[in-house]
Amino acid sequence: MPDSTLDSFDRSILRTLQNDGKASVQDLATAANMSTSPCWRRVRKLEENGTISKYVALLDAKKVGLGTQAYVHISLLDHKETTIIAFDRFVSKEEQIVECCSITGSDDYLLKIVARDPEDLEAFLMQRVLALGIVRSSTTHFVLRQKKQSTALPLNL
User: Fold this and answer.
1) pLDDT tens, 23-40?
2) Per its UniProt record, what PROSITE patterns does this chain match (predicted)?
3) This prediction's pTM
């Protein structure tokens, strides 16, 4: 359920920031149809309460030499707390794993992994992921072409 404390001004500010994280307070105020001082206070409140968790630069993976992406389904050997903690620690340390979700169904996790090329991905899977000794199985789905990528959340649901 959406945070009911977000009003139309907050949503406008957030929508603008999702499209341009470097937008000035003046740009945000214009988009929200308000003056800069109240807009600045709203942005600070959204940062302080965690609605805005951080600001980042989104990079083009191919332009930084990461031309291969894959989604990897992982099933663990067991569901003991030590196994789950070990896997979670591993995931948190590995930069090539850019997204990890615990999922329902026959697998336990879904990983999004980036690599230089398919061989680099294979090496990462074999030498890092499967070498953990706690993975029962993995299924890899290579991304052929990305049709849509967005970090913006829908704010009107």
Assistant:
1) 999 999 999 999 999 999
2) HTH_ASNC_2
3) 0.87
